[in-house]
Amino acid sequence: MTRQVDHEIVIIGSGFSGIGMGIALRRARRDFVILEKAQEIGGTWRDNRYPGCACDVPSHLYSFSFEPNPYWSRAYATADEIQDYLLYCVEKYQLRDRVQFDTAVQEARYDEGLGIWHLAVGSSDGTMRTITAGSVVLGVGALHDPVLPDIPGLEHFRGELMHTASWDPAATVFGKRVGVIGTGCSGVQVIPPLAEDAAHLTVFQRTPVWVLPKIDPEYPDPLVDAYEKHPALMKAHRAKIKVANELRAVAFTQQPVMLKLASRLALQHLRRAVKDPELRDKLTPEYTMGCKRITMSNTYFPALAREDVTVATDAIVEGDATGLTTADGVHHDLDVLVLATGFDVAGSYRHLNIHGAHGHDLTADWDAGIESYLGVTVPHYPNLFVLLGPNTGLGHTSVLLMIEAQVDLITQLLDERDRRGTSVVTVRPSVVPGFTAEVARRSAKTVWKAGGCNSWYLDEDGSNRVLWPATVIEYEHRVRHPEMVDYEFSGAI
Fold first, then answer.
1. Angle at CA 47, nearest 5°, toward 45 and 49?
2. How many CA atoms lie within 13 A of 178 on its CB side?
3. Whose C-alpha in 151, 249, 430, 487 is 20 to 30 A from the C-alpha of 342?
4. Element counts in the chain: helices (H) and strands (E)
5. What start and end residues bound the annotated signal peptide (predicted)?
């Protein structure tokens, strides 16, 4: 049988992961295509367009190291500005002709006989076709499959219902009764602008969130000019941010006591903004800071302190045509209901229907317990690579650092496979249990496990399947100096 493929490599997804991988493959002069289910590139920053949407990582660190941007307008970029940066990268590195839009992967199946992948893809008009590839890179990310709350009767609600990840740009809440479910990062950002326009806003809070002041100055033109003319200054600024953020990793993963100072700052921030002791008590977390993702805002607490805003802390028990009822028996009349309820971190992979070697199914395998090696390779899935896979998320700094390190690992594995004259590379199954055990052991000491809260960082069994329990510097070293003995190379080209 002849090993013929449509493309050497297929990348699924065109967010930062997919674009970063595409740039590396273009530089390496490899044949590849990027499959994107939407009509434009962008991933998270294309989809999340709700009012107030912005990044909580400093702008100069939330960009590719090889493509610094002197033109960021402020310390923390908005969603629009980040999307513009990604579009710029696509044009500069001439990737648009490599992207197939309106192309959703329905199934990916590994052919053991030929050593290739068959991908069934569909478009919005119902057209189906098959693409074959030597290798597949999953750049689908973890923040694009919205979680919808399980509220009896919610399907009967007759008002406007929308998730922050599918915001209608034409939507307006002016003069309307608005409800928001969720007070995580998206909720903290969207609540203040909604409070400005709504006739009345009800915030349904399950757990209070730690909120720090947001130091977010606009960058003056002289500083932007200096970064443009002297890239070394911008590089030094980025390095300083990286080091400062890495110190947080020590607090999160080894010394949660270090978070006490930040906790005091957050409580002072709350006391200054909220004078009502009853409301302040509702907004005071009882778990250790960092157990859930820490948020930053200067407008969140003032918004909640408004007379036309209600913070409801009783559980939602029922929805109906006109609103929601909470456990205290109060019915909240609503015209608009906003779901700031986050994402299913594994859902991005389930809908792809990935079938590997020896009858392995990724959904079934990961339902039994998500496992990978360094978050990039999965046993029994030859020539399949994952970007921002299990245990490579971050709670303290920019995930773009992880993406770049993972892209380096993938390119090294592809180069080593070519050097050996083989066509297939896969991680040895024997090395994965040890890595999984290491992650579990190191996670046990972290604030995510010991901080006294439930978060999307942990699965139903309380295991950390999302975050890297160490510094980025350590991760970078491990993936940029891989032990090739951990991988199997087979098959003739």
1. 80
2. 26
3. 249
4. 15, 20
5. none
Sign of the CA dihedral running 366, 22, 234, 74: negative
What are 481's two structure tokens?
Answer: 């100096």
Q: How far apart are CA 446 and CA 257, in angstroms?
A: 11
Side-chain half-sphere CA neighbours of 77 within 13 A: 22
Record the tokens describing residue 204, joined without a space: 């349904």
Could you report the per-residue pLDDT of 199-238, keeping only the tens digit for each? Answer: 999 999 999 999 999 999 999 999 999 999 999 999 999 9
Task: Return the CA Rg of the chain.
Answer: 23
Q: Which domains does the chain show, CATH number per domain?
A: 7-145+344-492 (3.50.50.60), 154-215+242-339 (3.50.50.60)
Integer Cα distance of 425 and 422 in angstroms: 8
Place of tokens 């990044």: 55
Q: How many CB atoms within 10 Å of residue 109?
A: 15
The two three-digit tokens of residue 42, written as one number:
């962008």
Burial class (CB within 10 angstroms; exposed 0-12, middle 13-18, buried 19+) of 162: middle
**pLDDT confidence of residue 183:** 96
- Rounded to 5 degrees, what are φ and ψ at 439? -60, -45
Angle at 197 between CA 167 and CA 58, to 5 degrees: 60
Q: Where are the beta strands (DSSP E) in 347-486?
A: 354-355, 384-386, 422-427
Helix (H, G, I), strand (E, B) or coil at 63: coil
Residues 18 and 35 sit within 8 Å (Cβ to Cβ): no
What whole-number distance in Å separates Cα of residue 301 and Cα of residue 297? 8
The DSSP 8-state label assigned to residue 59 in this structure reads T
State the helix-helix crossing angle for 399-419 and 16-27, rounded to 10 degrees: 40
393 pairs with which residues across the strands? Answer: 467
Q: What angle do CA 491, 138, 488 make, to 5 degrees?
A: 25
